[in-house]
Automatic annotation (TrEMBL):
Residues 391-417 are annotated as: Disordered. It comes from Coemansia reversa (strain ATCC 12441 / NRRL 1564). Residues 1-25 form the signal peptide. The keyword Disulfide bond does not apply. It comes from the Eukaryota. This is Periplasmic binding protein. The chain crosses the membrane at residues 422-443. Residues 394-410 have a biased composition (Acidic residues). Keywords: Membrane, Signal, Transmembrane, Transmembrane helix.
Length: 474
């Protein structure tokens, strides 16, 4: 009885494969929209798509057939997609690959020891010539770089400065995903990241007494310089955490130490992005760089409370911070890190990822290892739900812990979790005609497999790692 059902289906499948062949010539690219104005556009056509980097004014053509379209004008570089192998000269690319489940395609880096993702197979990562304009790694399909011309016809630029807001920068995951035809997964992940970011941002706009905070940087040199960082990336994070942001005018003279000290003397918190070298003595180094001789008795709030923070709390064995590699991919977590410093009562269950308290007696960074990072439970795929609230004022008497905002124990609200469940349902329904579906839609199967991967990741739940225990410093 069973045979009589299966056989016609098999025959139908074979018949369909024959008639469907010409249809396979179309790429079947997914179309996704953009939520921010990230500095690139994606235009999808039947057998190619165009990624335009509007800041660098470069157009990349991505095609799926064996032959590159010949009748399209204005394309600077063509790539056959999906690409198989990737090189990088910008750490952020590694974070995007990890989030998309493509870390296995990373085979070359300008500085492999600067990579912090312990789940990469270090033995297969070649070193790229730092100065090359034609890559010396012949087997790489594309090299992501801060400079669009670094590797001639396989070079692709990602934004490297902080002129974009955290969400604009993170939305470049869709740009990277286009090289793997994974825009849908990227879209789903980014949407949940943006929802969480905007939700926390909104929740922190009701403070009774907004803290004052600045990002600062000391730069060594013949004439040392002192800067208040006022780029969009840092400003948006401080504003989103409810702090009054960097609205100070830039110093007329960046070498004027006294003017700098005067400009930030109202700070409750300072976030530092200077290079520091004296491990174990970095707080002392910091005071000395900025010219604070007696911080304890200075009468300046951030100095007396020693509230100086950095983003390098989580490093690889070589001491390289993980922030540039993973932080840009998850602005919702970076924002929650900053909120956890400025307003610790907002979510007492949150464990900080990157921020390190430089003013503490123990400035040890957390070195990434299998003890604190489980490669089977990537921390990119699950985004904790944030519930909108207007009652958090930062005032300890009136704030009550919000059970929904604190809810971190379920993946029910996770964007990728939800997408994964939908994909799972589709897969279940499709099982009885699997033969037909697999034969007809090879590339769709590939795409679904990516989602199955996402589902498997989401099932592990939230917070696979617990990088920084906030209570350690209290
Ligand atoms: C590697 O990391 C070091 C220390 O953070 C930095 O000085 C250097 O520029 C990095 N190299 C590359 C190629 O990114
Ligand atoms: C590329 O060049 C760099 C520096 O010149 C060298 O260290 C590396 O081994 C080269 N890589 C390959 C794959 O030839
Ligand atoms: C880049 O140029 C080389 C040498 O001309 C060529 O072999 C290769 O196919 C080109 N790659 C792409 C992606 O256009
Ligand atoms: C500073 O933050 C406020 C919200 O607290 C925002 O309205 C304003 O646009 C921000 N200013 C700048 C220059 O970012
Ligand atoms: C600092 O913290 C690290 C990590 O918790 C710990 O291993 C180390 O022993 C601490 N060092 C001191 C001096 O307390």
């Amino acid at each position: 009885m069973r045979f009589s059902i299966v056989q016609p289906v098999t025959i139908a499948a074979v018949a369909l494969i024959h008639t469907a062949n010409p249809v396979l010539a179309a790429c079947g690219f997914d179309k996704v929209g953009l939520l921010t104005d990230p500095g690139f556009t994606i235009t999808v056509n039947s057998n190619y798509k165009v990624l335009e980097d509007t800041a660098a004014k470069v157009k990349y053509g991505l095609y799926c057939d064996d032959t590159q379209p010949s009748d399209v004008a204005g394309i600077d570089r063509w790539f056959k997609v999906p690409v198989e192998s990737v090189g990088l000269r910008i750490s952020m690319a590694s974070g995007f690959l990890e989030a998309l489940g493509h870390s296995d395609k990373l085979i070359a880096a300008e500085s492999p020891r600067n990579l912090t993702n312990i789940c990469l197979d270090a033995s297969k990562i070649q070193t790229l010539d730092p100065a090359s304009t034609t890559s010396n790694s012949s087997s790489v399909d594309v090299i992501f770089s801060a400079d669009e011309g670094s590797d001639s016809n396989i070079s692709v630029r990602l934004p490297s400065n902080d002129a974009l807001t955290p969400l604009q920068k993170a939305e470049w995951i869709k740009f990277v995903a286009a090289f793997f035809n994974d825009e849908k997964s990227a879209d789903s992940l980014f949407s949940s990241i943006a929802d969480a970011y905007n939700c926390h941002w909104g929740n922190l706009q009701h403070l009774k007494d907004a803290p004052h905070a600045y990002w600062v940087q000391y730069t060594d040199g013949a004439t040392p310089s002192y800067s208040i960082i006022d780029t969009a990336y840092q400003k948006d994070l401080l504003a989103g955490a409810g702090a009054t942001n960097n609205t100070r005018a830039a110093l007329d003279d960046s070498s004027d130490q006294a003017a700098f000290q005067d400009a930030i003397k109202d700070a409750d918190f300072v976030f530092d992005q200077s290079e520091l070298h004296s491990y174990g003595q970095r707080a002392t180094e910091w005071y000395s760089n900025f010219g604070y001789k007696n911080p304890k008795n200075s009468g300046v709030t951030f100095l007396t409370s020693r509230n100086i923070w950095r983003t390098d709390g989580f490093t690889n064995k070589a001491g390289v911070s993980n922030f540039a590699e993973f932080g840009y991919v998850r602005p919702d977590l970076v924002l929650q890190d900053i909120i956890s410093v400025l307003e610790p009562k907002y979510d007492t269950d949150y464990s900080r990822r990157w921020l390190l308290w430089l003013g503490g007696t123990n400035e040890s960074t957390t070195v990434i290892s299998p003890d604190n990072y489980d490669c089977a439970k990537p921390w990119f795929s699950t985004v904790d739900k944030c519930s909108a609230r207007t009652d958090f004022t930062g005032d300890s008497d009136s704030d009550t812990p919000d059970s929904e905002a604190d809810d971190t124990d379920s993946d029910s609200g996770s964007g990728s979790g939800r997408a994964g469940k939908i994909a799972g349902g589709v897969i279940g329904a499709a099982v009885f005609v699997a033969l037909v579906i697999v034969a007809l839609h090879y590339y769709n199967r590939h795409r679904r497999n990516v989602r199955i991967q996402a589902l498997a990741q989401a099932e592990y739940g939230t917070d696979g790692i617990d990088l920084r225990d906030t209570r350690r410093f209290s």
